[in-house]
Design a protein that fits this description.
The protein is α/β, with parallel strands linked by helices and 296 residues long. It has a domain of 203 residues: Aldolase class I (TIM Barrel, Alpha-Beta Barrel), CATH 3.20.20.70. It contains twelve helices and ten strands. An eight-stranded parallel barrel has the order 1-4-5-6-7-8-9-10, surrounded by five helices. A two-stranded antiparallel sheet has the order 2-3. Helix 3 packs parallel to helix 4 and helix 9 packs parallel to helix 12. The radius of gyration is 18 Å and the shape is globular. It starts with a strand and ends in a 7-residue tail after the last helix. The mean pLDDT is 97.
């Protein structure tokens, strides 16, 4: 299940409220266009800034439109392991295929504590668990030995890897690896990744899928050339707090507003101008690469 390009969905807002219609249209476009899977309530979805009612609105919109056509997993984060487990119990009511779960933030436990944390979560559900190694947000890494131990648990199926220095180690383990750092996608493929959960897929899923296709066909130089063309756009999309630049670029075709929720500020006018130029660059890359259709 954990292969290809997955989309960690933004949560569209309009006048401060979740824009359900825009979210439903976004899901339909990407599901119809061939995205491999969806992540709701992740970092890119500003999930930490949504209340429980809004989280339910997002899940209702995503799962009802996806309707089993592609797998959907939900992000679960926080500090207290018991709160993670409680959240998973609430999420069990939805038609989800699994959960993307990070280590507890801020506490910086040792690796024995990290393993214990994920063991409690895996016991709380029969659905798939995707480990989320994102130390720049949580303050603690999931080390190779911990992942090796956790991979023995039946429903721990994959890891979203964000730290380049652990790509090679994770790629050698009996667990699917999905890249979580857009600018490192090709490096992660070389290390054995089966795909990526990439926020930039909102605007260039087709080109990311083309990079993976070329790599899978052992056309390394073509894959590298295609990815190098994408790199300036990827840098721009993460030059502001995620997901402000991504939403700003999506707003250029009015698919969503550029609105974010404070303290995440919206993209500056100067960045918006640069994103307009980036959109033209993506069109040029598509004309050259002629990627297979994956919605963006």
């Amino acid at each position: 299940m954990f292969t290809g390009i997955w989309l960690p969905l933004v949560t569209p807002f309009r006048s401060g409220a979740v824009d359900v219609a825009a979210l439903e249209a976004l899901v339909e476009r990407h599901v119809s266009g061939g995205i491999a899977g969806l992540v709701a309530l992740g970092t890119t979805g500003e999930a930490a800034l949504l209340d429980r009612r809004e989280r339910a609105m997002v899940l209702q919109a995503v799962t009802s439109v996806a309707a089993g056509r592609v797998p959907v997993i939900a992000g679960v984060g926080g500090i207290d392991t018991a709160a993670f487990v409680d959240e998973i119990h609430r999420l069990e009511a939805w038609h989800l295929d699994g959960y993307l779960v990070c280590a507890p933030a801020y506490l910086c436990p040792d690796q024995a504590g990290v393993v214990w944390h994920f063991e409690q979560i895996a016991q709380a559900t029969e659905r798939a668990i995707v480990l989320y190694d994102v130390p720049h947000r949580t303050g603690v890494a999931i080390e190779e030995a911990s992942v090796r131990a956790l991979a023995q648990i039946a429903n721990v199926k994959a890891i979203k890897a964000c730290a380049r220095e652990r790509f090679a180690a994770f790629g050698a383990l009996p667990i699917d690896m999905l890249c979580g750092s857009d600018d490192a996608f090709l490096d992660c493929l070389y290390a054995g990744a089966s795909g990526g959960i990439l926020a930039s897929a909102h605007v260039c899923a087709d080109l990311l899928a083309e990079v993976q296709r070329l790599f899978g066909e052992a056309r390394d130089e073509d894959a590298r050339r295609c990815f190098m063309g994408l790199e300036p756009v990827l840098r721009m999309l993460f030059s502001a707090p995620n997901p402000s630049a991504i939403k700003a670029m999506m707003s250029l075709d009015a698919s969503v507003t550029a609105e974010t929720r404070m303290p995440i500020t919206t993209a500056s006018p100067a960045l918006r101008q640069r994103l307009e130029a980036a959109r033209a660059l993506l069109d040029e890359l598509r004309a050259t690469a002629k990627p297979a259709r994956v919605a963006c």
